[in-house]
Amino acid sequence: MESFDVVVVGARCAGSPLAAMLARRGLKVCVLDRAHFPSETPSTHMIQSCGVDVLDELGVLDTLMSAGAAPLHGATIASDDVRIHAAVDGQADHPVLCLRRLTLDVLLVEAAGAAGAEVRTGTRVAGLLRDGDRVTGVRTDKGTIPARLVVGADGRHSTVADTVGAQEYDVTPPGRMVAWGYFEGVDREPLARFGRMKDMGYLAGPTDGDLYMAAIAPDQCRVNEFQADRDTFFTNAIRNWPELADLMADAKRVGPLRVFTKWHGYFRQSAGPGWVLVGDAGHFKDFSPGQGISDALRQARHLARSIEDGLAGNGLDDAMQRWWDWRDHDAYEMYWYAARMGAPGPATPWTNALLREISANPAATRAFIQVLNHDIPPSQLYTPAMAWRATARAIREQPRHAPATVRQFISTAREGLQQARRKQRLADRTRSMNREPDRSQR
Ligand SMILES: Cc1cc2nc3c(=O)[nH]c(=O)nc-3n(C[C@H](O)[C@H](O)[C@H](O)COP(=O)(O)OP(=O)(O)OC[C@H]3O[C@@H](n4cnc5c(N)ncnc54)[C@H](O)[C@@H]3O)c2cc1C
What we know:
The chain has 15 helices and 21 strands. By secondary structure, it is an alpha+beta fold. The chain has three domains: about 5-45 and about 100-175 and about 265-335, FAD/NAD(P)-binding domain; about 180-260, 2-Layer Sandwich (D-Amino Acid Oxidase, Chain A, domain 2); about 350-435, no CATH class. The strands form four sheets. Strands 1, 2, 8, 9, 10, 11, 19 and 20 form an eight-stranded mixed sheet that branches. β19 and β20 (about 275) form a beta hairpin. α2 (about 50-60) packs across α9 (about 290-315), α10 packs antiparallel against α15 and α14 (about 385-395) packs antiparallel against α15 (about 400-430). The chain starts with a strand and ends in a 10-residue tail after the last helix. The relative contact order is 0.14. Mean pLDDT is about 95; it is low at about 435-440. The structure holds flavin-adenine dinucleotide. Flavin-adenine dinucleotide (FAD) binds near residues 10 and 45.
């Protein structure tokens, strides 16, 4: 029975890059997945520039570009009649990429193999090996694999998390479902489009295969209405964003609509004796700001360093606990921001006034892109001063809604306080474990 330093369960955005980075550090790594690749997974696929940085470090960027990845040099954010046009170029080392998972994931799996990791696809993990409390490997449908560390990179329904009993915390309900399709005959403007028209959310942009991806995000409570006539619902939704409808006037859909309805947001306990979770296995957030893939890539980069350090004799379990702290601190603000962005219902006069503040101010527009790229936390853009200016603007522009605007301002301020308390709880947890948090790298 061959044993490994690390066995990674799950071979997509978190698992394969991690396996590649560990193998390059000279560790003996096995990465396995029940899927055979190329393989689709339910996900749209805007990859923020900070994630593209990691793809570049992995050495796969040129291959991705020749596979047709669409580089997006800017973003248009629309909310009813508000428009923000923001450039990515000049602010980040790489453009945003839009690349179907069918194309991306197989290249990541190949990169793991090329780096020297043992890749076993079509292999399902059914349980874990243990020595007392300690996880010592995995049990698969093809036999057992002992390892010094088991990494769960196995997504939202993680077998590793389930088997070790990892608890969820700070759970959020789903705001919206999402449905998306791929289209021919659409002008491939190099832009990501994020939108909200009345109660409908949107995400769109050109992708590989000379296709255009368009996604709609209706309120979660409209699932049955959507399911009753998917095509008509989708077509009507696209018509409600006039610029997108114009762009897609001659579009012809290729393949079925993809649909994702059942989810919730969470953090999970992400480290224990002999095991650690990365990517969606440990944390899932609302998909509206398109963060999960770049988060998985950045997390893999950070975790690779922590594992190398831990296995080098510096206390593996402590290193994994510190990594879990880093993940929480890294993801925390964006988690609540994403939940607000994907909240159901139409935009209010206050939220639109906030976006007008951003669109009227070039520095704030730049900061908006920096928030999406994880360069600055949302609180650095959405300051109390900005919230106050937006309140004054909303009351000036729509005095009829003044009471609702003031209520939203107050409830947002309360939410800010609640978030500060939650952050404090995180810091307390770190302190109670009697260790310094590792917040050194992005
Ligand atoms: C609808 C939707 C839209 C999204 N849009 C975006 C977007 O535009 N941009 C963005 O950045 N992010 C987006 N995300 C988030 C993104 O898809 C995830 O964050 C990302 O896929 C996480 O990668 P992962 O490797 O952690 O997990 P996954 O991609 O879920 O991979 C987990 C892998 O583990 C394998 N596995 C599971 N259990 C086992 C087992 N027992 N044995 C063996 N293998 C197993 C699975 O087969 C799978 O291949 C979206 C998500 C959803 C749901």
